Amino acid sequence: MLPSSVSSFHTTNPTSTPLSPLSTFSFLSASSSSSSSSLSFQQSSLQRRRLVSFGPISKTLFGINSKSKGILRVSCSTSEPLKVMISGAPASGKGTQCELIVKKFGLVHISTGDLLRAEVSAETEIGNKAKEFMNAGRLVPDEIVTAMVTARLSLQDAKEKGWLLDGYPRSSAQAESLEKLNVRPDIYVVLDVPDEILINRCVGRRLDPETGKIYHVKNFPPETEEIKARLVTRPDDTEGKVKARLDIYKKNADAILSTYSNIMVKIDGNQSKEVVFKEIDSLLSQVQRDEVKLLKSENSVPESGSHSSQAPVSRDKWRGIPTRLNNIPHSREIRNYFYDDVLQATQRSVNDGRTRLRVDINIPELNPEMDVYRIGTLMELIRIIALSFADDGKRVKVCVQGSMGEGALSGMPLQLAGTRKILEFMDWGDYGAKGTFIKIGSIGEQEVSEEDDVFILVAPQNAVGNCIIDDLKAMTVAAGSRPVILINPRLKDLPGSSGVMQTMGRDKRLEYAASFESCYFFRLLYFAGTQYPIMGALRMSYPYRYELYKRVDQPSGTEKYVILSTFSEKPSIDDVNDAFMGKPRNGAKKASGFWGFLSSVFLSGEDDVTSNISELARVTVKSQIGLMSLY
Ligand code: AP5
To answer: Which residues does the UniProt record annotate as the domain DUF1995 (predicted)?
Structure first.
């Protein structure tokens, strides 16, 4: 779907659209346009290059008629290619990242700063008007910029290749204009950089008028003396003007955020440009995959007894993760979302050659600590994963641990009692998969046969007085390089029947448990140890980043999950606290209050009721009030 990458910024900004020196555009009138009609252009001329104002440029003229009764229509359906908005303070690195994004994803880069500089350089009517605002570090009037952007968006290349909007919208009026035209991005990326760094970046910025490449005297010096000699400084890059631009950015940022909060992702822009790009790359790739998944599920013909009979993934409805997770029982749509989410992550991991995997999914119906726990949901999840591998021709052994001690149920975790029988009696599809491609077994070395390709272990866990890890270890050794997938394992040592913790070999056991790589993680975050209300969620689906969401009540009575931050590793307590409190990353402070409690619960990766309770006791009424006021 995507064009192959291209090597220079010139070529990343497609010139396929016919350009001519003098151009005008006309709006289709309402009567002559259908609902999907787009702007009609007689001609358009924009040199889409960073810093076009310093290079040779054609004259441009925008025939803007603000009194026109015509209606702008830009058609943007969900099946179109990637649509991205990037925002951030002056010098947060938008342009730098856009170069990299365009190179990788082939999107059409629309930078209002570049468009305006082109007009200024060409000394057009618009350029002359815009110049005084730009030089003063102020925003150019909305109607000028909006007309430029909507015109550019409606061109064929943007529709076909997708677009990357940089520096627009910058006011609530601009955001509203796009909403009215039904122009919405798939994702709204915000680069977050501290003020003092921004000023240094602006003052040190240099631009190459020939290539449009962005340099910095210290951070990214030019490659050769020849380039160095021709570099120029932007007129609005003085310290005073940067401060004015920063003030304006801050005044407008919140208003725009409210329009895009459900698709907003904040990225720490104070990292090397490669690291920042890695994060953006991972997010955009995820959006693309979700889009493909959505289209596939919408187009798929339901098949009975297979996971493909699930309802379409409602990404548009949920914009990320499902809502109403405290409605028990979960709807089929919600269960299907999670089954599919886990399945995709597991398959990607196995396809990438990972062999020691764990899935931790903690929605209420899969949380044995809650009285709404449903063994049926766990079994359904296992069946979907197992059948999917079997569909690929792999022989899957689904293993559930048996009793590990004397007597009927002694040593059997209560959560698993009867599970084996349920698995035996379950419907494994119409094609006789059970007994051939699917086998039911136990946990232990003796269960590993030569023909098995994949092992799925159902919630392996320690029982009072017994530790499953030794059996698990022997089994994985026997499995060798074949994938072993633990679904909701609970491998922490528990107190023995005597009430004494098993300490012998504990370190080694925990080290072994930690050797399983997380390929899927989903955990709801609750307020101060209660199970209501849900405050947010942490999700990770291999190979993507951990995503931290906050649940937000909407005036309409509905709710939504807003992404607060992403992390390459499972976030620390401080990371989570800071994200919820809106603080910059890597603060040196210790976790405290509610968020400290929340994060300490889930960061362990396994429920630990005892420590939760003692942590709960530390939460003071004062901190509760303080944090409640955040909402
Ligand atoms: P515009 O050109 O959009 O300026 P801006 O938003 O202020 O952003 P900048 O271009 O200054 O910075 P950037 O985030 O692209 O950073 P860059 O990658 O270059 O707009 C200019 C003017 O046009 C506005 O002031 C306004 O008047 C007008 N305008 C534009 N859009 C408008 C709208 N919608 N409505 C009304 N008016 C509008 O990087 C900066 C420097 O940092 C470089 O030197 C770079 O090398 C360096 N750098 C980048 N990334 C890193 C990193 N990770 N680490 C270290 N250094 C880095």
So the answer is: 335-577
Mean pLDDT score across all residues of the chain = 74
Q: Give the span between the Cα atoms of 351 and 345, in whole angstroms.
A: 10
Place of tokens 């209420």: 364
Question: Could you tell me the sign of the dihedral formed by the alpha carbons of 413, 416, 420, 421, in that order?
Answer: positive
Predicted TM-score (pTM) of the model is 0.52
Q: Which sign, positive or negative, has the C-alpha torsion 27, 32, 36, 41?
A: negative
Residue 244 pLDDT exceeds 80: yes
Q: Is the CB of 112 under 6 A from ligand 1?
A: yes
Q: For residue 35, count other CB atoms closer than 10 A to its CB.
A: 7
Is 65 a residue whose pLDDT tops 80? no
Beta-ladder partners of 559: 553
What is the amino acid identity at position 601? Answer: V
291-330 as b/e: b if 16+ CB within 10 A: bebbeebeeeeeeeeebbebebbbbeebbbbbbebbeeeb
Query: Is position 170 annotated as part of the catalytic site?
Result: yes
**d(Cα 631, Cα 240) in Å, to the nearest integer?**
36
Choose the weakest-confidence range: 409-423, 477-491, 533-547, 576-590.
576-590
Three-class DSSP category at 164: strand
Binding site membership of 113 for ligand 1 (Cβ less than 6 Å): yes
* Interval between CA 251 and ligand 1 midpoint (Å): 17
Identity of the residue numbered 183: V
Q: How confident is the model at residue 293 (pLDDT cuts 50, 70, 90)?
A: low
pLDDT band at 380 (very low <50, low <70, confident <90, very high): very high
- pLDDT reported for residue 545: 81
Does ligand 1 have an atom closer than 6 angstroms to the CB of 94? yes
- Residue 290: both structure tokens together: 């979700």
Does ligand 1 lie within 6 Å of residue 115's CB atom?
Answer: no
The Å distance, Cα 26 to ligand 1 centre, comes to 30
How far apart are the C-alpha atoms of 309 and 301, rounded to whole Å? 8
Q: How wide is the angle at C-alpha 87 spanned by C-alphas 83 and 88, nearest 5°?
A: 160
